[in-house]
Amino acid sequence: MVFLLTKVNGYKHNRYSTLKSQIMTDIVVLDHKIHGLSAADYVTALQETLPEYEMSLARTAAEREQLVADATVVTGYQISESLVESAEELSLFICTFAGTDHLPTDTLEANGVTVENASGVHGPNVAEQVLGYILTFVRRLDQGWQQEQQAAWNHYQADELKGSTATVVGQEPIGQTIVDRLNAFDVTTIGVRYTPSKGGSADEVIGFEDAGLDEVLARTDHLVLACPLTELTETFVDSEVLLLLPTHATLTNIARGKVVDTDALVNALQTNEIRGAALDVTDPEPLPADSPLWNLPNCHITPHNAGHTPKYWNRCADIVASVVQTTTTN
């Protein structure tokens, strides 16, 4: 089945070869809230970006069943196997998350549905949060905030980010954006990726299994995790990696909680093996109230919030437009 979208408002009608004579909705948006943002705003952003296409928001189970059945494109956080199997015209599902491991990929593939994701949608906001974490440690803003709560006017020493070395694990769009932001601060950047030959904007790019990785970690001032969770990256940061890092090093995790061995990290922070850690993701997640991480002064925790941005839907709409326009052109 060849994917061709139908245009409205006087545009030329292109169709699936098997599409019914009566055209339904081109793009269906599933009513999934992301970071507290309304999916209705996603529809608005799509309408502004692709005014020639017909949009519908499926709010209820009945609307999802009815609208998806005739849709050529569906976008949302997730889609059920039953919806995929009932959607005879569906050719493209665009996930509003970068990760797609929660999707029924076997069912989608079996039904000839191409899956695209929102890779890169989080780049600017996540990179800014990473810089915030690192600058908090470097400039010792956490010390200043603590003194502020105590109304204590005491001077303290701070450091500079310029001239330091940051290793960013994961060189997909988010990791690349983090590197770009760090480069602007005159930081020596090292990227770690599955295929080093793909390169990137980092000063140096190495592989996960590169013989020089230990040496890189030993000279890393700031280790940033921005990689997907795979068999290779699960507990990538373990007790051995934490021992390799300098005692002044910081760890920032905006990847997945299980990329870090939590017990090993707690021990490293309690014994000052590293300067500190900033965690936007944890293992387990949500982090239990009795976790020792909450009470460590050298550990800063945010509730998986780095992905939030008021520009989320606009960026998703741009991704949908790019995919749709490329597909219809081809």
Architecture overview:
The chain has 330 residues and is of the alpha/beta class. The protein folds into 2 domains: 27-119 and 310-329, NAD(P)-binding Rossmann-like Domain (Rossmann fold, 3-Layer(aba) Sandwich); 123-301, 3-Layer(aba) Sandwich (Rossmann fold). Helix content is 32%, strand content 15%. It contains 11 helices and 12 strands. It has helices at 39-49, 61-68, 81-86, 105-110, 123-138, 141-149, 173-183, 213-218, 239-244, 262-270, 312-329; strands spanning 27-30, 55-58, 73-76, 92-95, 114-116, 165-169, 188-193, 204-207, 222-225, 250-253, 276-279, 299-301. The strands form 2 sheets. A 7-stranded parallel beta sheet has the order 8-7-6-9-10-11-12. A 5-stranded parallel beta sheet has the order 2-1-3-4-5. Strand 9 (222-225), helix 9 (239-244) and strand 10 form a beta-alpha-beta unit. The two termini are 14 Å apart.
The global form is: elongated
User: Uncertain spans, ≥5 residues at pLDDT below 50?
Assistant: 1-24
Q: Overall pLDDT, averaged?
A: 91
Count of DSSP strands = 12
Q: Give the CATH architecture of the largest domain.
A: 3-Layer(aba) Sandwich
Radius of gyration: 23 Å
N-to-C CA distance: 14 Å
The neighbouring-strand order within the major sheet is 8-7-6-9-10-11-12
Give me the CATH fold name of the largest domain.
Rossmann fold
What about the largest sheet? 7 strands, parallel
- Look at the structure and give the CATH class of the largest domain: Alpha Beta
Work out the helix count. 11
Which percent band covers the strand fraction? 5-15%
Topology as a string of helices (H) and strands (E): EHEHEHEHEHHEHEEHEHEHEEH
Helix content: 25-40%
CATH homologous superfamily caption of the largest domain: NAD(P)-binding Rossmann-like Domain
Number of domains: 2
Broad structural category: alpha/beta
